Structure formats: structure tokens, C-alpha cells
Amino acid sequence: MAVKSKTEETGAAFDSAPAVAFATEAGTKGIEQTVAALKDGMAQATAGIEKTQAKVKEGMEKAMKTAEEFVAFGQGNLEAVMKAGQIWAAGVQDLGKQVAATAQGNYEESMATFKALSSVKSLKDAIDMQAGFARTAIEKTLAESGKLTDASIKLTEQTLAPLTARVSMAVEKFAKPV
Fold it and tell me: In terms of pTM, does the model score above 0.70?
């Protein structure tokens, strides 16, 4: 075994210094690359989370807006039904008044004919008077029936108008592609 001098030991130490520096530098670069990769990964993850949060927020806002629209639409439907009910009630009341007025008129005419029949002097006059009364009553009944039918049709149209408007609105609003 040879004995090394101090110079040789120091020289060997100096000779290994570049290898240690290279290893230290390589280790430092590796750590720096790992840290950079971690930072990049964290930045991408943060961006992904923020993007997901933005999409969730946007989805929730759309859902809330849709829910508000449905509630408002439902309220509009309820208002239309109430308005149709009011129109129908008023119309039925008017039809009832019309029927009552017709019945009152028929009653008064029947009473007048009855009084006139009580003063008739012959059976032929009574039959002629009764035939005239019957003819007039049938003509009035047909005329009043036509008026009542027309009024009923008009009432139906007026009653359905608010509901028809809501249906048209629904078709227009909800039939659009999203």
C-alpha cells in the first residue's frame, strides 16, 4: 500500500469537486423541474376548478332563471283562468237576465191572450185567437232561441280568449329550440 501525500489527497479532492458540483447542479435542476411541474400542475388544477365553478354558477343561474320564468308563467295562467271565470260568471248572469226577461214577456203575453179569450163571443174567434197566439209564441221562441245561442257562442269565445292567449304564448315561448 502506498502512502499518499497531502497534495495527492487534496488533488483527488479537487478532482472529484466537478463531479460533486455536477451532481449537486443536476439535483438542483431536478428539484427545480419538479417544483416547476408541481406549480404548473397546481395552476392547471386551479384553472380547471375555477372553470368548473364558473360553469356550475352559470348552470345554477340558468336554472334559477328558468324556475322564475315557470313561476311567472304559472301566475299568468292563474290570472287568465280567473279572468275567464269572471267573464263566464258575468256572461251567465246576463244570459239568465235575458231568459228571465223573455219568460216575463211570454207570461205577460199569455195573460193578455187569456184575458182576451175570456171576452170572445164565439168558438171560432177563440180558436183563431189561440192559433195566432201559438204562432206568435213559436216565432218568438225561435227568435229568442237564436239570440240565446248567439249570446252563448259569444260568451264562450270571450271566456276562452284569455286561455287561448296563454296557450298561444306557451306554444311561442316553449316551442323554441334551446
Answer: no
How does pLDDT run across 42-75, given as a tens digit for each residue? 888 888 899 999 999 999 999 999 889 889 988 9
| Sequential DSSP letters for 52-63 | HHHHHHHHHHHH
Q: Identify the residue whose cell numbers are 455536477.
A: 22
**DSSP calls for 28-53:** HHHHHHHHHHHHHHHHHHHHHHHHHH
CB 160 within 8 A of CB 83: no
The span from the CA of 108 to the CA of 58, in Å, is 74
Dig out the grid coordinates for 76 from the structure. 299568468
- Cβ contacts of residue 161 below 8 Å, gap of 6+? 84, 87
Q: What is the CA radius of gyration of the chain?
A: 50
